[in-house]
Write a structure and sequence with these properties.
Strands 2-1-3-4-5 form a 5-stranded parallel beta sheet. The longest helix has 17 residues. The radius of gyration is 15 Å and the shape is globular. The chain is an alpha/beta fold.
């Protein structure tokens, strides 16, 4: 639960820094958060993380957050073809729908995002949760990244 709160704090900071002022936040469209999970939806770790993350995110945002979970399902569909297929799907899905922050919930998600970030979510801040410290060259891909 502590990890979820830290990630939420990081997202809050990123969203706060990108807003022009408090009034604009209240009257503008809700902030959109995409979370990239590495396994399938029913993976116990994702279920627990989501159970802690989502309610706190929604509570702290007073309903002004649109939450979009995406599951890479690398366990069920490994390989390069699947990564490209998922890239194409996400590109089509979020076309015309600006995203305010992307959360990479794992090392695998961060690697996927490192590969496709500029095409899928250009200029969108990234918050990552990782079991290991990402490579410096991965972190250098973004101006706005924290984790």
């Amino acid at each position: 639960m502590k990890t979820v709160r830290v990630v939420l704090l990081l997202i809050w900071v990123v969203l706060s820094l990108t807003a022009t002022d408090l009034v604009a936040q209240q009257t503008a469209t809700p902030k959109r958060v995409v979370v990239l999970y590495w396994y399938d939806k029913n993976y116990p770790g994702h279920v627990r993380w989501d159970q802690g993350f989502r309610p706190v995110l929604e509570q702290d945002a007073d309903g002004s957050i649109e939450y979009y979970p995406e599951y890479l399902e690398a366990n069920r569909f490994p390989g390069e073809n699947q990564a490209q297929t998922l890239h194409d799907y996400l590109k089509d899905k979020y076309a015309g729908r600006p995203i305010d922050v992307v959360v990479a919930q794992s090392d695998v998600s961060l690697d996927f995002l490192a590969r496709y970030h500029e095409d899928l979510f250009p200029n969108v801040p990234v918050v990552f949760y990782s079991a290991t410290r990402p490579k410096p060259e991965t972190l250098a891909l973004w101006q706005d990244i924290t984790g």
